[in-house]
Amino acid sequence: MGRPRRWTNERIRSELAEFLAGRDTWPTAHEFRGAGLGALEQAARRYGGCKRWARTLGVKYQARERRTMGRPSPWTPERIHAELAELLVGRDVWPTVREFRRAGRGSLYAAMHGHGGVDAWAREFGMRARRRGDARYWTEERIRSELSEFLAEHRRLPPHSAFQAAGRDRLYHAARKRGLNWWAKELGTPRRMRKAHRPKDGAPA
User: Fold this and answer.
1) Which residues contact 49 (CB under 8 A, 6 or more apart)?
2) What pLDDT sits at residue 69?
3) Does residue 19 fall inside a structural domain?
């Protein structure tokens, strides 16, 4: 069996145009899946977003909650498998938690924990789940990207406690391997100013 065709903007536009012919509103995810085009819907989400593609192709986009009769749709192993199969089309490596969330699949990630665990589902698709503690996860490119994002919220290099409070302790330790001061200089972030010791009353300055 050959490798899946790669999704490109041209392919997405062509397949969407064919599916949207005669429609004036963007289809639901259920309608995409019913037509056997779940992977196309996921590709549209990943490459620009459904709202942008709807606007480009001249149909109305209306955000819809993934709920039925006011209750969340039940997660079954069959549903998890089907949605993972759509998400993983064209991928060679297992997505990170952040990639699941960016694809609007945070609930899918959570559902895996209640049905065997993320590692088991990754193995089901012949992949290996990546962990934030893995040396292979914390590449220099990833540290640079995540540290830049975190430091954008701070005027100076924050202390360890700030990383912990933001749930970024693993990022802190990954960055320490090269040195936080090195990264601060590399990313143009001022280092923390050390507090000057104030002399006690009566003591010479």
Assistant:
1) none
2) 45
3) yes
| Count of structural domains within the chain | 3
Domain of 81 in residue numbering reads as 77-130
Mean pLDDT to the nearest integer, 194-201: 53
Same domain assignment for residues 153 and 117 = no
Q: At what angle do helices 38-46 and 9-20 cross, to 10 degrees?
A: 130
Phi, psi of 121 (to 5 degrees): -70, -35
Q: Both 50 and 103 in a single domain?
A: no
Query: What's the rounded mean pLDDT across residues 98-105?
Result: 80
Tokens representing 54? 């709807």
CA–CA gap between residue 62 and residue 60 (Å, rounded)? 7
| Amino acid present at 92 | D
| Radius of gyration, alpha carbons of the chain | 23
Cβ–Cβ < 8 Å for 19, 37: yes
Tell me how far apart the alpha carbons of residues 64 and 51 are, in angstroms, rounded to a whole number.
12
- Confidence label for 194 from pLDDT (cuts 50, 70 and 90): low
Q: What is the pLDDT of residues 124-133, one digit of tens each?
A: 888 877 665 5
For the question of whether the overall pTM of this predicted structure is more than 0.70, the answer is: no
Residue listed under structure tokens 């914390």: 138
Whether pLDDT at 47 is above 60 = yes
Q: Are residues 9 and 29 in the same domain?
A: yes
